[in-house]
Design goal:
mainly beta, 24 strands, Neuraminidase, 4-stranded antiparallel β-sheet, about 270 residues
Length: about 270
């Protein structure tokens, strides 16, 4: 894999030396933020790492447990961490945004997180990774509800992505790409074959999907799946750069984040 970073402004082709990087997000300043789980189930060794456009590395926030999904909304970073959602400020200070008791069902394995245009958060709970998963909606008001569960098409939801006011994309650990309707609460399967599905990104009609189990990043468009790269050990929660030119891929087992240039059709 030849990785070019001319479009992103980042000096690093590969960011290495990370400890179980799970999720990535690009800030408004062009910096890349990475959630590092550290040792799984070890308390307070998780952190959020910042890589600026010159490749300089720093720790934004530490003392976390097992941080996973991250997303920006109005210069604040929202992070799933075991059974809570955290809010991280730009100065690195952080606190609990949604505590365990705020959830109508006790979270088992909070995983991915994304945000609507008005600041509502969508959070997946992958559950037992077999059949007990569900999706939470955290309103800006603080109210938390379950929006998807017990549907025959949803088993262990992982990656989540709002693509319209009333539509969500979900990739299930079982391997299915799903579309959820927030008005009817219906979920339909639109594609399959993404075993160990982890992350999602979307731009110009192309859905990018990562498979943690297979170490593959796919592109899905017009009912056709193509492989972007298949040389990862465990491709985790991917993100698209703000300019849409680069796919940012954390590899949990390899301890790296790779920047892949893409050429979306305009």
């Amino acid at each position: 894999l030849m990785v070019l970073t001319i479009n992103t402004g980042h000096a690093n082709e590969n960011i290495s030396g990370l400890k179980m990087p799970e999720s990535v997000a690009e800030g408004s300043d062009g910096s890349i933020y990475i959630s590092e789980i550290g040792e799984r189930d070890k308390d307070k060794d998780g952190k959020i790492t910042k890589i600026d456009k010159n490749g300089n590395r720093s720790t934004l926030a530490d003392g976390l447990y097992d941080p996973k999904g991250i997303v920006f909304y109005k210069e604040k970073l929202y992070v799933t961490d075991r059974d809570v959602v955290l809010e991280v400020n730009t100065d690195g200070s952080w606190g609990v945004y949604t505590g365990t008791m705020a959830f109508p069902k006790t979270p088992v394995f909070l995983n991915d997180i994304d945000v609507s245009s008005n600041g509502d958060l969508y959070v997946t709970d992958t559950g037992d990774f077999v059949s007990s998963g569900l999706v939470f909606l955290i309103k800006k008001s603080g109210d938390v509800s379950v929006i998807f569960e017990g549907n025959k098409n949803i088993k262990a939801p992982n990656g989540i992505l709002p693509i319209a006011d009333s539509k969500l994309l979900i990739v299930d650990w079982a391997g299915d790409l799903l579309e959820g309707d927030l008005i009817t609460n219906e979920i339909k399967r639109i594609a399959e074959g993404f075993d160990g599905g982890d992350g999602l990104a979307y731009d110009n009609g192309v859905i990018y999907i990562s498979s943690w189990k297979n170490g593959v990043v796919y592109a899905y468009q017009n009912r056709k799946t193509t492989i972007i790269d298949d040389k990862f050990e465990a491709a985790a929660d991917i993100a698209l750069s703000r300019d849409g030119k680069t796919l940012i891929v954390p590899d949990m087992k390899a301890g790296t984040v790779t920047l892949i240039p893409i050429n979306p059709k305009n």
